[in-house]
Structures are given as C-alpha cells and as structure tokens.
Amino acid sequence: MTETGSSDTDTHRLVAQRKEKLKAWREQGAAFPNDFRPDALAGELQRAHADDDAETLDERAQEVAVAGRLLAKRVMGKLSFATLQDRSGRIQLFVQRDLLGEDAYKAFKQLDIGDIVGVRGALSRTNKGELSVRATELRLLTKSLRPLPEKWHGLSDTEARYRQRYVDLIMHPDSRAVFMARSAIVRGVRDFFESRDFLEVETPMLQAIPGGAAARPFVTHYNALDHDFYLRVAPELYLKRLVVGGLEKVFELNRNFRNEGVSTRHNPEFTMLEFYQAYADYRDLMDSIEALLRELSDRVAANHSQACNEDAIRFDAPFERLSMRDAVLKYNDSVSQQDIESLDGLSEAAARLGVKGEASWGYGKWLTELFEHTVEHRLESPTFVTDYPAEVSPLARRRDDNPDVTERFELFVAGREIANGFSELNDAEDQAERFAAQAHAMAAGDDEAMYYDADYVNALEYGLPPTAGAGIGIDRLVMLLTGRSAIRDVLLFPQLRPQGQ
User: Which residues of the sequence carry a binding annotation for Mg(2+) 2 (predicted)?
Assistant: First the structure.
C-alpha cells in the first residue's frame, strides 16, 4: 500500500490527514514516546540468519526488538505485512491480529508509510522464505507528517536529492551506502597514519593570514578584535610550524574553504587530508600515498561493495611517474623536444594548441598551463606528475640539480587531481623571497596569490628539519572509490544556489 501525492494539492491533503491522526494521538497522551529500546538491527539479522530455515527459527523462537521507518504496508484482513528500515537495512514485519491483539492491530492499520515504529517479536520465515519479525508488540514512536516520494521513483530530481538529503537517504539504499563507505575511508586514513606513528592534530580554521595554497579565501570580520579574518584555504603553514616545534610526523583531516566556483568536481567547502614527515622527501610521500590508496581501495572493495558502481577505481597496479615536461611531450605529438627547450618555443607551441597566456609569464607558468590544458584530463590510470616549476610552487624545495624545478608531485586519476605534495622549502631566506614575489603578484591583480606570512618565515628561521608533506582531497578520493562522477554525490550537504535563483 502506498500513499503518494502527484501534486502540491495532494501533498497538502495528505499532510492534513496525518496531522489529524497526530492530534488524536496527542489526545491519548502517548505522543512521541522515548522508552522503546531496540536490541537488534535489520541488516545484521538478515546476515546472521541467512542460512536458517523456517524450522530452525521456530525452534529457537528468538525474540528481538527492532525500530525504524515503515517503508511499505500491505493489509489483508486479519494478517498484514510491512517493511521496516533502520540504519543497517530492511526486514519484513509479520503482523497478525490474533498475535498482536485487537486494539494494537487496529492502531497498526492506521499507520502511514514513513512512520517510525518499534516492534518486538520472534524471528520466523514466511512461506515465501522471507525473514520476518512476528510482531507481539508494535508501537508508533514518531508520526511522519509528510508522505514519502513514490516508491519506485523516489526523488527523481537530482537537485532535490541534494537539497533534501534526509529524504534521499530514506529512499535510496545506494546513497546511504556511499556515506557509510566514506566514513570507512576516513577511518582507514586514521588507521593508516596512526599505525605509522603519526600524530593527529587540529589547526585553526579562522586565520589572520590565509596561506598554504593559491586560492581566493572567504573573508569574515571578527568583532571582538575589530579585524578581518579568513576561513582557511589550507592548514599547511600551521602544520609545518608544528614540525619546527618537534612534532616530526603529523596529520590532519581538515575542512578547507575556497571562494571559487561550484562544479561536478568542486565545492567551496571540502575535506582534505594533509600530512607532514620530517627527514623524508617527495619520493617517500609518493610511496606512502600509493600504499594508502591501495589499502583504502581493498577495504572498500571488501566491506562496502554495495557503495561502488562499475566506475569505481582500483589501485592494484603500480602508479606511473612522469615529470611535467615528459608528460607534455608524451601526450602532445605536436610538441617537440626542441619546443620545450626555450621560453619562446614553449609559448609558441602552447599558442598552436590554443593555450592563451600573458606576456609576463615565465617558462614555468607556460609549461604548467600547457600541461593543465592538454594533459591533465587525459591521465586516466594513477599517475604521479613530478618536477613542477618553482614559478608555480612557492612552498616547495628546489631540486639540487635543477633549481628551476621543485621536488613536487601531483597525483592524477581519471583526469582528476587527487593529491599534491612536495619536499618542503626550509630555507627561510628563499621562502621570504618567494612570499615577496607572491605579494607582488597579488598587488598586480592576482587574487589567488599567497599572502606574505612573516610569522611563518620567523618559524623557519628557528629551523625546519628536512621535511616532506602532502594533501589528498578526501571528497575526490571517495568519488573514485565509489565510482561517483559528481562531488555532490559524496557530500551529505553540498553547497547549492538558494532556491529560486
């Protein structure tokens, strides 16, 4: 039995009917009780008794108490069936008047789809083989005033699923599975680093100077100090201050905020993992990230396969490693070795491929733009791209054999950037010069340039040991491991335009 509204008028009528039922329930003095305690979960019961036949269940006569939402109800005279859903899954309710009692059975028939109930009874298996709870007690715990969407269509409007995630989670088991997998991935990240003697820390979200990434920040005003503050774009500079202080292996699962566009791959509020390790370089980080992603992939595949679709990525094979120069050559037949030997040759090759630039750009900026426009989206299998130009890497250590490039990498999978890491710049004077160059770029109109952070330079002057650090986008990682194409599918409450705009 379903109860759906095909129009706003139908919905208003159904809500009014349910409110009348709630009114009667209040008059009985039993509205919204909080004294029922379930002792079993539907999904766990299904798994635990998957091999038990009807005779075995009847002999055991195991009593259970379950609670959840009614998703279906089929009334047939003195005998009815219903489907209950809790956080773990679904189970059938076998509701018989003679077993439940006349008054309770009458009350059951008045229940609506979406109501939350508590049920007590013995486990059994019906003639059709369905595991069921034979109800000896069935109580209404919460009255649902709004009808659920039609059973077979649910929330067909994708944006409505994002705006009303609570309804999406009720109606779509696959959506719930994705967020259960996400939780397992985050837990797996913690297990990985804690098992390797990393310390989990927390750094400020409100910062006087936004640093650690080239991004436009959100600005707010702190009334008590009469000063503008910024939601952090990255925790990097604070984490490296901790390494200066002697916390040699640290990580943070953090929320970052960037005042940028919204797309299938971008949300202005997102989750990042950042980790830093003293006495390590960028090659050590690549090894760690490869091991981490392989471990997380195995965990999701083994325990959360219901969350994955056919596009889910596995990380079984070794990751490819390419310098940015080699990547540009490999994926652009029209770019020759001679082209990338000089600024003029590189800019001309980029122009031929439709990459537009500025006269002020140096070699490194042109190479990066050429890579981003012609290569990045083509990196399907896991690939570490290394040796980023110093011009676009203001916090990374220069290579000893070539100071024009840095010991930096980015990891790309399915055409998406997943991780960014490098051997850290620990030369305070070099860092001050790079901050000054960034400040000059900001003054010239680059609203994503970094601020000059004098305190961070001061920290480096106390001595940062040789260190490497990396960041991994958790949202994009969950997309890969569950095969989702839009970041909103892996965020419980993604940012959306206000309705009507």
Answer: 417
The binding site consists of: 410, 417
Q: Burial letters for 100-118: b for 16+ Cβ neighbours within 10 Å, e otherwise?
A: bbeebbebbeebbbbbbbb
Task: Report the length, in residues, of the chain.
Answer: 501
Domains defined for the chain, CATH in brackets: 8-152 (2.40.50.140), 171-313+414-490 (3.30.930.10)
H or E stretch including 12? helix 8-27
CA-CA distance, 488 to 155, in Å (whole number)? Answer: 15
Q: What sign for the dihedral angle of Cα 245, 249, 255, 260?
A: positive
**Which residues belong to the annotated binding site for Mg(2+)?**
410, 417
Find, among 211, 415, 190, the residue nearest to 292 by Cα: 190
Structure confidence by residue, pLDDT tens digits, 38-79: 999 999 999 999 999 999 999 999 999 999 999 999 999 899
**413-426, pLDDT tens digit by residue?**
999 999 999 999 99
Q: pTM, whole model, 2 decimals?
A: 0.90
**Strand 131-142 to strand 89-96: parallel, antiparallel, or no bridges (unpaired)?**
parallel
